[in-house]
Specification:
Number of domains: 2
CATH architecture of the largest domain: 4-Layer Sandwich
CATH class of the largest domain: Alpha Beta
Strand order of the largest sheet: 8-9-10-11-7-12-15-14-13
Number of strands: 15
Number of helices: 8
Distance between the termini: 44 Å
Largest sheet: 9 strands, antiparallel
Bound molecules: S-adenosylmethionine
Shape: globular
CATH superfamily of the largest domain: S-adenosylmethionine decarboxylase
Strand content: 35-45%
């Protein structure tokens, strides 16, 4: 993390696809679900960040989501990715929009901007006597893994109903969620009649979050964490063994300082993970991050 005395004017924004909020000193992560409109909060959020914390610029932004099953049920600006991009472009003149995966099947949309320290330099130019920011400090290690699962096993999904589990704690234990990343302090919630969300944080600053929609017609589970690893094979295997999806997407972001920077190669070698076979893999190199996208199906499929 860059730190120039008490003057910190830039922060990082991440938007994902369920309902959680993580706030740290310079990072704000929001996940929403259903027909909520997360991008509508951009204007008040940017105003609030300046007013309360003195942040005047965004150093990095990641807005991502899987393709919707029923986009026509969404509310503007979330009916189409083009619409979301137009809104984001009205705030940021240097954002980039991507679609990874198969546009006629499973895909994943990403809008990102990464100023690679330029914004920092602009703000702190005089303070750091025009020296490149990179010469002062390399970025902190940073990585994010997401696993987005669909076509879930109905027996596993039954755990996340009030019929099968008395409360969230019982669902967490019965499903084995507490063994995915042991040692996390967990805050979990079981909805009535069904549905489950959990947020976990560890003492060393890692988080994990899981959101579960058990309804058979549109079952969906998302997992996300910033835990550092050089190989995510074991973690992915634990997640998919726990939830038994028919299909899943993995996305992995890692910056150059992160031990996960090499993990893309491990994913490249993982043509099969247990009973799941890879159907797609793509890599992107952004200014500060490498991104790996992979899609797997349970075979035969
Ligand atoms: C995992 S929750 C989504 C996350 C949730 N919005 C949160 O705040 O953590 C989605 C599942 O919960 C169920 N659910 C039940 N009551 C809900 C409510 N009041 N809001 C959102 N989802 C609800 C949905 O039917 C679906 O299966």
């Amino acid at each position: 993390m860059y730190h120039f005395g008490d003057q910190i004017c830039l922060f990082y924004l991440f938007f994902f696809s369920e309902s959680s909020m993580f706030v740290s000193r310079r990072r704000w992560i929001l996940k929403t679900c259903g027909t909520t409109t997360p991008l509508q909060c951009l204007e008040p959020l940017l105003e609030m960040a300046e007013k309360i914390a003195g942040y005047t610029d965004v150093e990095e932004l990641f807005y991502s989501r899987k393709n919707y099953k029923r986009p026509e049920l969404q509310v503007s600006p979330h009916r189409a990715f083009d619409e979301e991009v137009a809104l984001l472009d009205s705030f940021f003149d240097d954002g980039r929009a991507y679609c990874l995966g198969s546009v006629n099947r499973d895909c994943w949309f990403l809008y990102t901007l990464s100023r690679g320290g330029e914004a920092l330099q602009r703000h702190f130019g005089t303070l750091i006597q025009q020296r490149p920011v990179a010469a002062i400090a390399p970025p902190d290690p940073d990585q994010t893994i997401e696993i987005l699962m669909t076509e879930m096993d109905p027996q596993v999904m039954a755990i996340f109903t009030k019929e099968d589990s008395m409360n969230a704690k019982e669902a967490t234990e019965k499903s084995g969620i507490q063994n995915i990343l042991p040692g996390m302090k967990i805050d979990d919630y079981l909805f009535a009649p069904c549905g489950y969300s959990m947020n976990g944080i560890s003492k060393n600053g890692y988080y994990m979050t899981i959101h579960i929609t058990p309804e058979r017609e549109f079952s969906y589970v998302s997992f996300e964490s910033n835990v550092a690893a050089t190989n995510y094979g074991d973690l992915i295997a634990r997640v998919i063994e726990t939830f038994q999806p028919g299909k899943f997407i993995v996305t992995l972001f890692a910056n150059k300082s992160s031990p996960a920077f090499a993990a893309a190669r491990e994913l490249d070698r993982a043509e099969e993970i247990g009973e799941w076979q890879r159907r797609d893999i793509q890599y992107c190199r952004f200014q500060s991050y490498d991104l790996t996208y992979a899609q797997y199906c349970k075979f035969p499929s």
